[in-house]
Structure formats: structure tokens, C-alpha cells
Amino acid sequence: MTMQIPDYLFQQVKDGKVVLFLGAGASIGAMSTKGLKIPDAQGLVNLLSDKFLGGQDKNRPLSVVADYAIDASDLITMQGYIKEIFSEFTPALFHMKIPTFKWAAIVTTNYDQILESSYSSSKDAKQRLKPIFKSTDRIEDVVRDENSVLYLKLHGCISKWDDSSIPLILTIDQYASHKKNRQRLFERFESYASDLIVIFVGYRLEDPDLRQLLIEIADQGISRPRYYVVTPNPNPRDIRIWEQKRIQALNGTFEEFLDSLEESIPNALRSINTQDKIHPVESKFVFHQHLSPSTLSFLNKEVTYIVSNLSTEQPDARAFYKGASYGWAAIEAKFDAPRSLVNQLLTDIVITDEADRTSPTEFYLVKGYAGSGKTVLLKRLAWDAAIDFNCISLFLNGDGHIRIEPLQELCDLTNERIFIFIDRPSTRHGEIEKVISSSASRKLKVTFVCAERTNEWNIECQNLAKLVDESYELRGLSLKEINELIDKLDAHSCLGALSGQSREEQVKTFLDYANRQLLVALYESTSGKPFEEIIFNEYKNIVPEQARQIYLIICSLNRLQVPVRAGIVKRLTGISFSDFKENFFGPLESIVFAEEYKPALDMAYRTRHPWIAETIFERALPEASERFDLYIRLLGAMGTGYQPDRIAYRELVRAKDLMADFSDYQHIIAIYKTAQDRFIDDPYLLQQQGIFEMKRANGNLDRAYSLFSEARRIAPYDSSILHSLSELEFHRAHRTSGGLERDRHLQASKEIAQSLIGKNGDTAHAYVTIVKINTEKLIEMIEKGVIEEGVFTSLVKEIEKTIQDGLQYFPDDEFLRSAEARFLQLIAQEQKATQALEKAFNSNSSSPYISRSLSKLYESQGKIELARSVLSKCLDILPAEKSVNSAMAKIFNKHFPSENLKAEIHWRRSFTDGDSNFTNQFWYARQLFINKKADDAKRVFIKLKKARVDPEVKLEVRGIIKGDSGNQRVYSGEVVVIGVRQRFLHFRAIRSQ
């Protein structure tokens, strides 16, 4: 029998845009090796009754009999028996046709593994089946692979029969709590069901399970697509009732349905196998090969491969000059005014000869403030590298994941350098660090270029700083850039209030606004009003009210620099993307932009710029109560399996920001309660709750400890959680009355901090904590008036060593320098402490730590000869001690500049060739230069150039050379070569030396 299937449904199946939902009836036809049919619900009741209940209660529902069976045995035993039953069954021939079609997703309430067997044994499967069982499974990793299909097992699976956290849904109690640990699976299905066709198979129209599922995905009215139910001989009355709910019955069996699909959709048209597609990058291959499916998926989903005619959208100059930098149409149309930094970056990074690069893997950073034009500059750089210089240029998508394997494959197949451009690395710094380190270890020819806000980089990306080869600052517009921008505005009729002014007046207007910061300058110069006023008036004038509310929701999340999925907007407003296009595109034209969000087969919205979104959020929601209501709604609407939602959620629950936004701590507690209900067992959320309790007035430190401990249990290797726990112990010590309890907390804080220093340390925080703890102990000893010599000496040694070690890794860390200053100030102010330090030195002048501390103390008191003498005595005993040699060299540089040869000797003894003591090597090279050994100095500087040190540290001005009078020495010479990164000068004075 041929089933009557609508043509539109055939087309959607052919295009792979249908969700297949399988109930118990879908497995009918499967047979065991003994020739038995797979049991239906009544058959399973009979088997459970015979096994556990002595054949009784076979007339009761499955949920009741399962409850009785558990009571007679236990959950795991009962589930183990069900596993035995269903493990024997293999797919029917018609089940083997399921893999031959491409599906948007497959969902089931079945426990069996019939579908898994069908896919694993199929030789013509169009996709790889990826079962998902619980909320913690990485759903998004699956949907990113276009050759995989998500298989949501909502009611459990026999493969997980012994996992009591996700039991098989059988009993009444389990039905009541069926979403526990499966929340994300149901949310994912709800998301699909709001925009895609769902075909239910294996359910009767009167089936209560089907009715319950339809209630759970909510009656979304005409805004959702039509659904279908494959069912044999449907009742005409039921057909009419379900038709009212936009659910159409297809008369027939599952086998007949698949036969009809097979007959109407030729195999060749069932979503063409991606391996047969040719990607543009393959034209650069030096071998006759095709991309692997994984790398092809990476190029299609995770990154944008830059080629000409990349964009199909119509470029909008007006929107672009108001901050809309998404997409590539404006870049291709060259709306952006030339920036001098682009040419510098092209010269430094893109067209440099391979022989002149310091290493195969490179990492460059562009920093700038919000609204300075970083994203546009990064896109222009990526575009010019690809189009003008024929480079392999990849731009990481906002929702993309960067992986080393595709980069390795591209390098191997092209034998060319790969350029990958990343905006906002702060949101994925761990992922980037891992890939860059792996690329460097494999010696891949890959250049990473990132753009980030200066403050975000400084706070969030300390682990990346050591990997950067060079950083660049995107500054305000120069006069030349302002003139070129005005030309662009004029060419596209976007001068606004600047029209009719002379060029001189136009330039002056730009110079008068916002210190030439690009976004503000564009708004205020062309509108003649303050930026915030322009943006907020625009918001207030949006009609109707519903459109304004949609805009506010989009701004509230887009200010966090993430795309806002259409699914979130729909959950909050009931407005689908199709409704948005039809009814709200006009009111929000040019201020809200839609783009495809591939991992969810969804669309996403953005405002023109995160800064604009931030302005709207702050001005439209001035009251904490209004913000609170929106926070609760946003957290409740987020799909926890989506990357943009996760990023936004982490920003929304950050303790520091919540405490700044809400003065009433009850608001914050309620926000955390809502987040906890949505994001179960998330270590980051637990950590932020703990930080809130630790930092707020009269916070519950015991609760903070419990939260941090639970976070640590879930994520034992997360260094930030360990640091929070260390800080908490320090706080707890200060909350005690002293004595043994205080010492216990300080010791606990110190032990945790010690596990986070050295190679395990991403920041200087742990070093600072150790110095603070030991300084506190010194203060306590001094306040008691009794200084125990042995304890005092031990504390001073550890403080000095910690500071010295910390400065090796973080030479300019302000917190570490402040901790050092506080320690020295304490010693200098307390006479007993000074005496104790002197006594310790007299007892053991060979201690490097005591010697350095006492020398620094004398130096701070102006006793320079004594400072020098202390170090000399230590070096008499330990002439090769590196830290004391560096301290002595500093004394000579600062106070005895004429003794240059001695300074050189001590600097040379302050490091070992090949070690990571780069600071001392720099000072040694400088001393060689002063001592008229320019060639030797140059060799050391060349080595230091290749050192893996934060470029900010490399570029810090230090060691200014002064003359005998104490003034800066001035050299004169001729410029012989003008490079982009350097100016090469020929100094006559040095040449004569």
C-alpha cells in the first residue's frame, strides 16, 4: 500500500529538515534471535509480572507493574532485566531504511537499541547516529558535525541500565520527575519543535504519552509548523480533533511510510554526501585529495573561509556607519575607511617571508576600547589577506569552536600558512590557549590574530599573554583617517549633520567628539547630539510596544557580545522568527539584524553594536527591580545546550557584576536560585555563588566554603576555583578571634595557593596570597611584642622567595609589587623587626633571602653602603647565587653607575644560559651596550626577541640610559632603514665604540 504523503513533507524530508519522533510502535517488526517479536507495553507487563510478581497484576498499567517490580527487587535489578529483554532484538528490514535519509534530529521514548543497530550496520547511512542520554552530554559538539544526527533518548536507554541518575521512565513517580538530569534534552526537542516539522511514529492518536509530549512542547498555535502522526486506521473523529491542533494523521504503518519515502525520493537526492562536495580551499591542495568530513564541517560551520563574492546580502551603508559590523557585505563593498594599522599588520603579519618569522606558529593581538573599530579592522585584515594576497584566511564565527585537527589537515594538504582571525578571545581563552600550544608543539604554519577590548584582555586573558608574539593598539582616528572617513560618508550620503560644512569644519567636529573614538564620533558628528541621547531616543520611538520589548530583550543579551537566538525571543514573547519577519521587521529595520545560527538550525538576532545594546539596557532599565525581573526571565529562557546562551548565562551570574547592579542581596540570591534550577551542578555557578557569599557584607562563609567545595568536586582541576577557595580561607581567618582556628585557616589558604604557583600558575594571584598570609603572620608576631627568631627568619625567607619567584613569571604585576612594598614598609617601620632581620643575617649571612631583604631595607633607608655590604658578604660565601647577583647588579646600576664592569659581571651571574630568567638577561644585554659591547648586546637581544613573554612586558620602557649628570642620555645618528615595526638607526657615537 502506498501512503498518501503531502508533497511539501517529501521536500522537507529530502532537505533533511524533519524531526523523527519514535514511540514504542516504531520498533514493531524487530525480531529476536529466537524468532520472538519485540514486546509492546502489555507484553512488557507480562514479562515483568512473571519475573518479579509471580504472574500477578497483569491487568494493571505498565507504570504500576514496574513500581511493584522495583519494590519486589530494586531499580537496577529491574532495569537489568529489561536490558536482557530488549538486547536480543535486531532491526527489521524496513528499519534499515531510516539511516538512508537525512534527519534534522531523531527523538524517542523507547529504551531499545533498534535504531543504533540500524545505523551501525547500514552501508548507506547518510549520517552518524549520536545518542544523547542526559543533560551533561555535549549536545552542541554533535550538532556542529553536519554528518551526525542527534538522537535524544528522553525516557532512558538499556545501554545505561545501571545509571540510577537517568532511570528508564516506567513508574508513576518517574513520570512525575522524568526531566531530572534530562532537562536539556527536552529543551532541545522544544527548540526543534518550534521551527521544524515533527513526524510522530509508533503512537496511537489517543496515546496519553503523545498527548503529554504535545502539552510539554506547548501549544504554539499557527506560529509553529504542522506536525504529522503516522498511524494505521485513524479514527475520523480523532483526525478532526488533531487537525485543529495542526497535527495531520498519515494513515499507514511506519514500514509503509518509509517505503513511500524511498519510492518518491531517489537515494541520490537524499542530502548529497558532503564528502562529494568540493570546497574552494581544495584548489590550493598540493595533493589530489578531498577534505575529511570533520574538516569540511569545520570550514562550513565553525569558520568563514574568505573568498570573493562571499556575501549574498545587500550592503547597507547607513546601518554600517551606525555600528552594524556583522556579515561581510560592508567589507566587500569597502564601506570602511582605511586604517593605518591595517597596512602595518599586513606588512608585519601577512606578507612577511617565512624565513623572517621567529617560529612556525604565531599569535598576534590587537587591543582597543569599546567602539574603536576592532571588529571591522579584523575583518578588513582577514579580507585583504585573502583577496589581495591570496592567503588562506579563516575568520572564526561567533559561535564557532577552534580545533587543532582541521588546522593540521589544512597545513598538510596545502603546505601554506593558515591565517585564523578571532574576535573576542576572552570568551574562549582556554580553548585558544590549547590550540595555539598544540599548533606550536606540532610546528604548524599557523598565524593567529585576535582582537579584544583592552580591559577584557587584561582581566580574562592572562593565560594567553605569554603566548603573544606582538600586540598592537588600535587608537583614535588620525587626521588622515578622519579625512578618509568623511570621504566615505560623503560617497554614501551618510554625512548627516556634517552636510553643508566645510572640510575644515567637518574635521573639527570629529575632533571635538569623544576623543575621536570611532563609534561615538560617527554618531555624534553626523547627528549633532550626545551618543546616549541619540540611542535612547531611537529606542523610545520604536512602535508598537511589542517591537520595543523585543529590542530590549535582544539588547539585554547582545550587550554581552553574543547572538540572541530566535528561540529565546520566542520563549519570552511567543514571537517566532517567521512572525518577526512578517510583523516586526519594519519597526526594527536597521537596528536589529538576523543571521543564521547553524548549530541549532535556528536564526539569531543582533543589535548594531554591543556598546549600543549596553546603553539601551542601562537607560531603559534604571531600576534594580526592573532589571531583576528581566534577569529572571532571561535565565528561564536560555537553552543550556547552546554556546551563546552559556556565555550570556555566565556573564549574567558573575558575582562581581551582580553586586554592582543590585544593592539588595535578596535579588542576587533569587537570581542564583533561578540559575541553579536551570544549570544543575555547574561548577562556575557554584563558584560565583561562593564569591558572592564571601564578598557581600555579613556573608555566610560556611556556605561559601560548601559551594566552593562542591565546585571543586565537580571540576577538580579548575585553578580559578582553587584560587577562590584559597581566598575564602584567608577571609575565614580574619573572621575568627585568632589562635589555632585562625592559623588553621591561614595554613589551608597557603597550601591551596602553593598548588597554584610555578608552572601551574596562570596569574600572580597565588603568589600575592602567600605573601599576604606570611605578612599577616609577621604582623601578628610584631603586635604580640615577641619576635621568635626562628619563625621570623622562616617567614622572611618565604616572603622574599615568593616575591622573587613570582616576579620571574609576572615581572610587572601591580598586586605582587604592592605586596612587596607592604612587606618592606612593615619591616622598616618596626624597629624590632629590623633588629630581628639584622640578627638573622649576622647568624647566617649565606641566606640569599635574608640578605636580599636586609639589603632592600637598608636601601629604602638610604643606607646604600650597608645594602651593598650585605650582598657582598653573601656573595663571598655563595658567589654563583643568581638572585643575589641580580640584587647586587641593581645596586651598581642605581647607585654606582661608574662601576659598569662590576654591574656587567653580576648581571652575567644572575642567570644561566637557556633559563627563563628573561628579565635579568635583558639587564645584562643593556649593560653590555653601556659597556661598549654592542655586538654582544645585540646577540642577547635577538635571543630575547624569541622569548615567550607577554609583549606588553617586552615593550615596557625600562632601563633608560643616563649620563653622569643623571639626565637621560641623547644619541644622534642617521635613519638608514624604515621598517613597519622598527626604525633602524646608525649612531655615530656607537659606531665609533
Tell me what you see in this structure.
This protein is of the alpha/beta class. The protein is built from 48 helices and 20 strands. The chain has a seven-stranded parallel β-sheet, with helices on both faces. Helix 10 (236-244) links the parallel strand 8 (227-231) and strand 9 (247-251). It is globular. It starts with 6 loop residues before the first helix and ends with a helix. The relative contact order is 0.05. Mean pLDDT is 86; it is low at 218-222 and 272-276.
List the keywords.
993 residues, alpha/beta, seven-stranded parallel β-sheet, six-stranded mixed β-sheet, 20 strands, globular
Number of helices: 48
Global shape: globular
Strand content: 5-15%
Strand order of the largest sheet: 5-6-4-1-7-8-9
Reconstruct the topology from this structure.
Layout: H1 7-14, E1 18-22, E2 31-32, H2 41-52, H3 62-72, H4 75-87, E3 89-90, E4 105-108, H5 114-121, E5 128-132, H6 139-143, E6 148-153, H7 172-176, H8 183-195, E7 197-201, H9 208-216, E8 227-231, H10 236-244, E9 247-251, H11 254-264, H12 293-302, E10 303-305, H13 317-320, H14 329-332, H15 340-350, E11 362-368, H16 374-387, E12 392-396, H17 404-414, E13 418-423, H18 429-441, E14 446-453, H19 454-460, H20 462-465, E15 470-473, H21 479-491, H22 503-512, H23 518-527, H24 531-540, H25 545-558, E16 564-565, H26 566-573, H27 577-584, E17 592-597, E18 602-607, H28 610-620, H29 624-637, H30 643-652, H31 655-661, H32 665-678, H33 683-695, H34 701-714, H35 719-735, H36 739-754, H37 765-784, H38 789-809, H39 814-829, H40 831-843, H41 848-860, H42 864-877, H43 882-895, H44 900-908, H45 918-930, H46 934-945, H47 951-955, E19 973-978, E20 983-987, H48 988-992
Helix pairs in contact: 2-3, 3-4, 12-17, 15-16, 21-22, 22-23, 24-28, 25-28, 29-32, 33-34, 33-35, 34-35, 35-36, 35-37, 36-37, 37-38, 37-39, 38-39, 38-40, 38-41, 39-40, 40-41, 41-42, 42-43, 43-44, 44-45, 45-46
